[in-house]
Amino acid sequence: MKQQTMNTEELLAFAEEAHDSGTSWIQQADYTGEEVIMTDEDLAGREPLQRLRIIVESAGNAKYFESLFYNGAELEELMSELEPVFEKFPKKVLSSIEMDEKVQSITE
Fold it and tell me: What domain of life (predicted)?
């Protein structure tokens, strides 16, 4: 079963219900939208939008999670919330290209 979620509780439940150990594939990078909506003046002093992508895989099952955030505090809060997932499914960092390939295979 391969599914996508934007909900941390769903990801935590998936990790708790999994009987086998597995891997958390993780990738974080600047997120570039398709077009700029705000002018440079509106963006002055603002941190760039970041994207965190996680795939938790266990025994042929996978759950894909994606979240956008602006600053380190938001990322730290999210990672803290997901710590139980990473305790059961050790993190492995992927490049953007590797994550794109994994996501494509998950969502097909």
Answer: Bacteria
